[in-house]
Amino acid sequence: MRKVVISVLGQDRPGIVAAVSRVLLEHRCNIEDVSQTILQSEFAGVFIASIGSGLTPEALRAHLEQALAPIGLLVTVKPLEPRRGAQPPASEPFVVTTIGPDRLGLVAGITEIMADFGVNITTLKAAFRGGDDPRRNIMIYEVDIPSAIDRQAFRQALRDRAAALGLDLSLQHRQIFEAIQSI
Amino acid sequence: MISPAEVLSTLEMLKNEHLDVRTVTLGVSLFDCMSDDLDRLRAKVRRKIERLAGRLVPVCNEIGDKYEIPVVNKRIAVSPVAIVGAPFTAADLVRIARTLDEAAAAVGIDFIGGFSALVEKGFAGGDRPLIEAIPEALAVTRRVCASVNVASTRAGINMDAVLLMGQVIKEAAHRTATEDGIACAKLCVFANIPQDIPFMAGAYLGIGEADAVINIGVSGPGVVKKAIDRAFAADAGLDFGDVSELIKRTAFKVTRAGELIGREVADRLGVPFGVVDLSLAPTPNIGDSVGEIFQSLGLKSIGVPGSTALLAMLNDAVKKGGAFASSSVGGLSGAFIPVSEDLNISAAVEAGHLCLEKLEAMTSVCSVGLDMVALPGATTAETLAAIIADEMAIGVINKKTTAARLIPVPGKKAGDHAHFGGLLGESVILAVADNDASRAFMRLGGRIPAPTQSLVN
């Protein structure tokens, strides 16, 4: 059984997931994972589905486009490839939070440090809306920090970069949020 | 995925509400250090403390960094020295105190507790020498803390010990007269002392405890006050039920944070985790005061009518939240009202809102008792002992811990100021209404019997 990754992008409206999943059902594709989000007014969804041997990814894309293009949605379909190279290194989950006024280059500045240290971002949520409300000017990165790196050096590099960008930055093990916020 | 609201709520507690871990206290049993050779005992004590606590400070700092939650104090509590040093004289026990002080300095901690005796039902071999040694031991060391349990609900009140403690407190103040009697700030007299208190000056390692254990004290009152202020700013119509629920939820969060860090420290040091002490412990900093909570809830000041009711609600809500958060709650676990260590409480005394008698009344509904109370230097030993006896009676009858940490400040009178410095703070000296009016009573001697456990009114 082959698997494909389907991405769907376009202006949000009721019925997008229904439209995608109807096409997949009609072609006997089984959805294994879905994640969707809405940023401002834009819908973005990623589906992983298994497809039967009689269907190619290209043919599936054509079917999806036929159904979704009329409602203004862009679709891509690609085969799901097995992970290349070695397994990810042993790591611990941390949360990086920055709060501070918007300016050009905030995401680029912070993520450059993460990339330099081989720190993988697993979830990112950021919003820059101006004003004083921290909830409207925040970046929250959930990251995996490899156990082998010098965490203090990473923390310091992040802090230095945040200071240069005018941001308040916190780097905390994810467990603290689970301990405090969940029962 | 963690929601932005959860992240922001946690950060708010950390950045603006002073969420921290108030103390991580390593309990160290000294029972396997016992010897009838004083030098051998001292060498073993020092070696054991340095072996077990050598990494306490760096490990606490490292784990504090990992969660960005500071561990404010790192401390050590040892087995009661009256038992460990039972064969020795008072002078010998002072030398043991010096050894504890040196060991504490060597591992980089500020206080070590356990220069203690448990005498609620009577004096054993080492008890009287230890009590006799307390004034000198506290005067010649900086880090050693002493405690004496003179009463319990099951044993009653050892009034001979109470009187003795009145005299010891006078002597300890006299020996540190140039520092406003600071030795007394390191000495607590208890009823129903718990075996696992992480907070000083009452911390010691109980005789039923493990060889080594980590007990922790959670964050202070600043978190609770800010949560109350924020809730009222959002909704001015909150009632007592709402406020109690809010305090409960806040206590839950600080307890969770504390236990997470405490367990990790214990794990890293290879010792068992003991308890979380839920006590709201203030420091002499603005925004870290139990007294300020009273004002946030609509009282003009701590000490005015309504204060006992408010404290009862606060104490109970903290316990409910903490008990839900952790299955390992212990120590004192209540709200502290230490006068000199809480700027707001000290100011309430100065403004005339809070007197010794009201403080005593409030201790019937909270932990821990008459704490860091500066009294006139002329207060007699018998009067000090009588004040202690009253406080012990509250604990014994109500089946709870109470304590007295009284400082008769040499050469000063009611209304003067006493300065203890650092976390011990400063305070105006409270008036004692009737000094030297209890002499004959306190000289009766013997033990007030244990109270009946039925007929509960």
**Overall outline of chain A:** globular
The H-and-E topology of chain B, N to C, reads as HEHHEHHEHEEHEEHHEHHHHEHEEEHE
Distance between the termini of chain B: 53 Å
Provide the CATH top-level class of the domain at 19-334 in chain B. Alpha Beta
Task: Please report the total strand number of chain A as a whole number.
Answer: 8
What is the overall silhouette of chain B?
globular
Our estimate of the beta-strand percent of chain A is 35-45%
Order of strands across the widest beta sheet of chain A? 2-3-1-4
How does this model look, in words?
Chain A has helices at 16-26, 57-68, 106-116, 151-164, 175-181, and strands at 2-11, 30-39, 42-51, 74-79, 91-99, 120-128, 137-146, 168-173. By secondary structure, chain A is α+β, with helices and mostly antiparallel strands. Helices cover 30% and strands 38% of the residues of chain A. Chain A has a four-stranded antiparallel beta sheet with strand order 2-3-1-4, covered by helices on one side. Chain A has a four-stranded antiparallel beta sheet with strand order 6-7-5-8, with helices on both faces. Chain A has two domains: 2-79, 2-Layer Sandwich (Alpha-Beta Plaits), CATH 3.30.70.260; 91-181, 2-Layer Sandwich (Alpha-Beta Plaits). In chain A, strand 6 and strand 7 (137-146) form a beta hairpin. With 457 residues, chain B is of the alpha/beta class. Chain B has a domain at 19-334: Anaerobic Ribonucleotide-triphosphate Reductase Large Chain (Alpha-Beta Barrel), CATH 3.20.70. Chain B has helices at residues 4-15, 38-53, 56-67, 81-84, 90-106, 127-140, 159-175, 221-234, 240-269, 290-296, 307-325, 343-350, 356-362, 381-398, 439-442, and strands at 21-28, 71-78, 112-118, 144-152, 156-158, 187-191, 212-217, 273-277, 369-376, 402-409, 417-419, 426-428, 447-448. In chain B, helix 14 links the parallel strand 9 (369-376) and strand 10 (402-409). In chain B, helix 8 packs parallel to helix 10. The mean pLDDT of chain B is 95. Classes of the chains: A alpha+beta (183), B alpha/beta (457). Chain A binds chain B through residues 95, 97, 99, 123, 125, 134-135, 138, 140, 142, 152, 155, 168, 170-181, and chain B through 1-2, 4-11, 13-15, 65-69, 253, 256-257, 259-260.
